From TrEMBL:
Binds 1 heme b (iron(II)-protoporphyrin IX) group per subunit. Binds 2 calcium ions per subunit. It comes from Rhynchospora breviuscula. CDD domains: secretory_peroxidase (cd00693). This is Peroxidase. Keywords: Calcium, Disulfide bond, Glycoprotein, Heme, Hydrogen peroxide, Iron, Metal-binding, Oxidoreductase, Peroxidase, Pyrrolidone carboxylic acid, Secreted, Signal. Ca(2+) 1 binds at residues 69, 72, 74, 76, 78, 90. Residues 27-320 form the Plant heme peroxidase family profile domain. Residues 1-26 form the signal peptide.
Length: 320
């Protein structure tokens, strides 16, 4: 009989890599719940649609929820776990606290999904579908979501604090934080186009509108009207000055016009490596939509739990 050591000597590296790739990704596919929960996608879209009809911004909030889930321990719904007396999750991390929204919408989807197919669909897959539908319902592209993620039994406050980029980040920091998740600089620039929807708080763009020089003066003056030099930290402004509740390519038009809302946004068009891509997307929304769909699939592939790992939570806020 072959020992493990001599077997591994015989197995070519490419085969090992192929098997790793196939079996990490391979358990996920878009038809994962086709038999076990045929109404899943209809339920998710209808609840998201109602939530957006009530408040268009909720589409943006659900998209961001997915990003903040996937960048911390992978797309495993770790962000949804509530703190308890004996458990500290990710909700109080600096990038999340008083900022990430949409938890109630995920709860509403989950309770309808549980009513229809009990103990079958993960919260992580619900978050991925809700992000996709949000983009599409606000006018953006759609794509097939590979399903079969499972839910974490853990969360990481420290990773939530260290792995999510902040609004003061430089281009090189943004690129390396995405590289750390196996996403390219192009994925980073494309996914940043999510900032074509949603709102941001004054204290997160104050430095930009008072201290940056690569900003359109009338745009800075406009934002200063509701974001004073001190105080009123949580006053909101739309991230996309042109069309805040429409998923379009206006984010890139803004960057070309030096109207990026966060310092990190304008870093993508400030004489660096991403300028030409920003320029292209500013004039070609079809190219942006195609690229966005592809990069969202890659975002959704960050270290999912599959197979027998993790669990299917019954309540997205607590482990079983
Ligand atoms: C590239 C690095 C990124 C940085 C530095 C960044 C930073 C921020 C900041 C500071 C806010 C405002 C939060 C607040 O005011 O409470 C925000 C909002 C938002 N971000 Fe990002 N973000 C990045 C990438 C992304 C990605 C990849 C996505 C999704 C694919 C995304 C989607 C959103 C959305 C939709 C909002 C608005 C949320 C709402 O209105 O509730 N962001 N982001
Ligand atoms: C990135 O890819 C490497 C090599 O395939 C893998 O070991 C690592 O887990 C991946 N990291 C993420 C966050 O996907
Ligand atoms: C800044 O934006 C305003 C309003 O869109 C525009 O009229 C002006 O030309 C811009 N300024 C510069 C220097 O581009
Ligand atoms: C700032 O907050 C104060 C007190 O809440 C309020 O009266 C004032 O109108 C706010 N200013 C701006 C620019 O929002």
């Amino acid at each position: 009989m072959l020992s493990m050591a001599s077997m591994s000597d015989r197995i070519p590296t490419f085969l090992v890599l192929f098997l790793l790739f196939c079996c990490v990704q391979g358990q996920m596919n878009q038809n994962f719940y086709q038999k076990s929960c045929p109404n899943l996608q209809t339920i998710v879209r209808s609840v998201v649609s109602q939530a957006i009809a009530t408040e268009a911004r909720m589409g943006a909030s659900l998209l961001r929820l997915f990003f903040h889930d996937c960048f911390v321990q992978g797309c495993d719904a770790s962000i949804l776990l509530d703190d308890t007396q004996t458990f500290t999750g990710e909700k109080t991390a600096f990038p999340n606290v008083n900022s990430v929204r949409g938890y109630e919408v995920i709860d509403a989807i989950k309770s309808q999904v549980e009513a229809s197919c009990q103990a079958t669909v993960s919260c992580a897959d619900i978050v991925a579908l809700a992000a996709r539908d949000s983009v599409n319902l606000l006018g953006g592209p759609t794509w097939n979501v590979a399903l079969g993620r499972r839910d974490a039994r853990t969360a990481s406050l420290s990773q939530a604090n260290s792995d999510l980029p902040g609004p003061g980040s430089s281009l090189s920091t943004l690129i390396s934080m995405f590289n750390a998740k196996n996403l390219s600089a192009q994925d980073m620039t494309v996914l940043s186009g999510a900032h074509t929807i949603g709102q941001g708080q004054c204290f997160l763009f104050r430095d930009r509108i008072y201290n940056d020089v690569n900003i359109n003066a009338s745009f800075a003056a406009l934002r200063q009207q509701t974001c004073p030099i001190s105080g009123n930290d949580s006053n909101l402004a739309p991230i996309d000055v042109q069309s805040p509740v429409t998923f379009d390519n206006a984010y890139y038009v803004n960057l070309v016009n030096q109207k990026g809302m966060f310092h990190s946004d304008q870093e993508l068009f400030n004489g660096g490596s991403q300028d030409s891509l920003v320029q292209q997307y500013s004039t070609d929304s079809a190219a942006f939509f195609t690229a966005f769909a592809k990069s969202m699939v890659r975002l959704g592939g960050i270290t999912p739990l599959t197979g027998k790992s993790g669990e299917i939570r019954l309540n997205c806020r607590t482990v079983n």
